[in-house]
Design goal:
Elements (H helix, E strand, L loop, with lengths): L7 E5 L6 H8 L5 E3 L2 E3 L13 E3 L2 H9 L3 E7 L3 E6 L1 H9 L2 E5 L2 H10 L4 E6 L3 H11 L4 H15 L7 E4 L3 H16 L2 H14 L3
Parallel strand pairs: 1-7, 1-8, 2-7, 3-4, 8-9
Antiparallel strand pairs: 3-6, 5-6
Helix pairs in contact: 1-7
């Protein structure tokens, strides 16, 4: 790992945990860029193509898989496919920016295997009751879908120990500060700055 390599920051969490809001706060930091995922699900509400997702057909997605274009990909709820194109990591290298990935647990584990130095952050709701309240407040899901999302949240949270950091999002302002602090702190890792540190030492004659 070196400072010339982009910091890869993974953010995961159950639907309704507030991870998208925290990703936006991280992206307020200079020198960051968002990895835009591909998905086969249809856009929701006011979602527009190429802002948070590229919406593609199943056929197009499978063609991308066949060409080896994904850093990670997975099928969610046994229905729609989601994937992180490799090109974003390449662009982050070219632009010398840190790459932020908002992906699920399956995808996070895949990225950690391919990019071991990636920093993974898990966002949790303060309780099941609070998560259910948030999901219902969106008014987007049927009763069956809400039950499925809550069960998936439970399953995802069992993987918390695979992550480097956890943010319990019961206070959005504090959680946002924590998310930004993790990103800034990760940039200061000795291993990421060793080349520059050695150059500084040389200027001291040692």
């Amino acid at each position: 790992m070196s400072a010339s390599e982009p910091l890869v920051l993974i953010v995961s969490g159950p639907s309704g945990s507030g991870k998208s809001t925290l990703v936006k706060k991280i992206l307020e930091l200079p020198g960051t860029m968002l990895s835009i995922s591909c998905t086969t699900r249809p856009p929701r509400g006011t979602e527009s193509d190429r802002k948070w997702y590229n919406f593609v057909t199943d056929e197009a997605f499978q063609q991308m898989v066949g060409r080896g274009e994904f850093l990670e990909y997975a099928q969610v709820f046994g229905k729609h496919w989601y994937g992180t194109p490799q090109k974003w990591l390449e662009q982050a290298r070219e632009q010398k920016k840190d790459l932020v990935l908002e992906i699920d647990v399956q995808g996070a584990l895949q990225v950690k295997r391919k990019v071991p130095d990636a920093i993974a952050v898990f966002v949790l709701p303060p309780s099941r009751a609070e998560l259910e309240k948030r999901i219902r407040a969106r008014g987007q899901d049927s009763e069956d879908e809400i039950v499925r999302r809550l069960e998936r949240a439970r399953q995802e949270m069992l993987s918390y120990s695979s992550y480097d950091f956890a943010i319990i999002n019961d206070n959005l302002e504090l959680a946002a500060q924590e998310a930004q602090a993790i990103a800034v702190g990760a940039r200061c890792q000795v291993a990421r700055n060793e080349k520059r540190i050695r150059e500084i030492l040389k200027s001291f004659g040692g």
